[in-house]
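Can anyone check this?
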Amino acid sequence: MNIDYKVISKIFNSNVLGKIANNDFCFLKDISQQYSKYFLDTSLTGIYEKIYEILLNDYRNEYIFKNLIFEKLLLEKHTLDTATMLSEFRVGANKADCVILNGKSVCYEVKTDFDTLIRLPEQLNSYSQVFDEVYVVSTLKHLKNVEIVCPDNVGIIVLDNHLNFEFVKNAIQRKSQINFELYMKSLRKEEYLSIAEYLVEDKLTAPNTQIYDKCLNIIEEAVSKNIDINKIIIETLKKYRRNDESFTTGIPSYLWNASVSYRFSKSQVENLIHNFSNGEMINVLSDF
């Protein structure tokens, strides 16, 4: 039987992982029975390890790319004490696939073999207005067209056949002023309020209908005084969207992107850590 890669890759989506956190292994049971010849080990970790291996070799979807970005571009270069990765960060009408915040903000827009490049020019235009550096992370299949589409400031990274990231072109750090109004719309209320209160060194009070404009005015005034707002925004995002280090270090590496990209309750996080820590003992074909 041929493998339906799209189906087996669902074990890495938030819905299936949420069920595993609730000790529901029905989907894994169905997969392991349907593709039994591939699974000598039908334990929880055995199935996940095998499917991740299959996807790495034959079906490099967005999850695979983002997991490798977390591993190779965040953890191998920084630490979770100093850097944070954001997933699906909204910028205007677009969502940046990955943004790594350290001393600067670096955006990574993923284009797999299963993606088109139709929206790429619009995406890059938005991201270049708010992030310090912007990269397209793609494959050899798209490389020539990506090179045509990318403006001079945008870097290009290719995932090669050996699962290494090759920097085809380095990004040029943004020299123009950030579009702060666009950036503000990407922030949550608690974040832009924190920035404004930091700047005025006082608590702000205003009706909910006016608080956004009040914060924006404070930030624009600070910009006119050449205060480094970009640095303050980065530190604020790192504070409010800090990656859960205990979650990341408590699960196998093939789930790292899930720990960043999906929202789980505290009890679900604890159960996922517990289940995968004891994953070799959980046989999904057993009755629970």
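Reply from J.R.: I decoded it. The longest helix spans residues 208-224.
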